[in-house]
Amino acid sequence: MRKLIAGNWKMNGSLAANQALVQALRADVGSPGCDVVVCPPAAYLAQVQQLLAGCPSIALGAQDVSEQAGGAYTGNVSAAMLADFGVRFAIVGHSERRQYQGESDLLVARKAQQALASGITPIVCVGETLAEREQGLTDFIVQRQLSAVLAVNGTHVAEMVVAYEPVWAIGTGQTATPEQAQQVHALLRGQLRAVNATAASQVRILYGGSMNAANAQALLAQPDIDGGLIGGAALKAPDFLTIVGAAA
Ligand code: 13P
C-alpha cells in the first residue's frame, strides 16, 4: 500500500518560518513515492494552503477539529471550515490534546465523525504512557482508544488513518524499536479486521514518536507500519524529505 508521511508542526511556526519551510519542501519533494501531508497550526492553514497551491505532492492537514458541526462554540474550528481551506486530513486524539485539553475517547470519536462528514480523513491517534507500558497495559489502552472511535465510525473504517504514538516516545528521542512498534501495529490491524476485514488491509497505520531521518527506514520496513506522523523532524525540510524518501 502507498505509505503516508504526515508532518505535525504542533504549535510551531510563523508566517516567515512557514514560508521558508514550505518553499524548501516544494523545491525538493518532486513526485514522491508516498502520500505527504503537512499539518500547520489552524491560524496558518490559509497561508499554507496558498503556499502549496499548484503542488499536488503535498496535502494540507489540520491538527484538530471540533466535535461540533457549527454554532456557539467559542474557539472551535469546524470540519466544514477546514474543508473550505482545502484541508484533507485532520489529526484527532493526539496525546497532547488528551493530556492538556482532557480529551476523552468519546470526544475523539466525535471529532473523527465530524471530519468524516466533511470528507476529511481523520488521523486517529492512540498510544500508551510509560507508566501504562510498564504496567503491561499497552494493548488494553490502545485497543480501548481505537474501539471508541470504531464504535461511532465503524462503517467508515476504510476512510480512516490510525497513528500509534507511544507517549513515552514523543519528543523524547526515545523511539520505539521497530519490533515494539510492529507488535502494536499488528494488534491494531487485527482490531480493524474484526470490524471490516476488507478495509483493514487498506487502512494506513502510522508510527509516531521520535521518528527521524536516521530511524525511519527501519520502522517503515515493518509489515504493519504504513507511514509516519512526524513532529520535530517535520520542521526541518531535509529531515522530513529524507523520511518521505524512506517511505517511497
Ligand atoms: P516527535 O516526532 O517530535 O517525537 O513528535 C511525534 C508526534 O507527536 C507527532 O504527532
Structure in words:
The chain has an eight-stranded parallel β-barrel, surrounded by five helices. With 248 residues, it is α/β, with parallel strands linked by helices. The protein has one domain: Aldolase class I (TIM Barrel). The chain has helices at 15-29, 45-51, 79-84, 95-100, 105-117, 130-134, 138-153, 178-195, 197-200, 216-220, 237-246, and strands at residues 4-8, 35-39, 58-62, 87-92, 121-126, 161-164, 204-208, 227-230. The model has no long low-confidence stretch (mean pLDDT 98). The longest helix is centred in the C-terminal third of the chain and has 18 residues, at 178-195. It is built from eleven helices and eight strands. It is globular. The relative contact order is 0.15. The site of 1,3-dihydroxyacetonephosphate (13P) has 14 residues, from β8.
What's a quick, concise take on this entry?
This protein has about 250 residues and is an alpha/beta fold. The protein has helices spanning about 15-30, 45-50, 80-85, 95-100, 105-115, 130-135, 140-155, 180-195, 195-200, 215-220, 235-245; strands at about 5-10, 35-40, 60, 85-90, 120-125, 160-165, 205-210, 225-230.
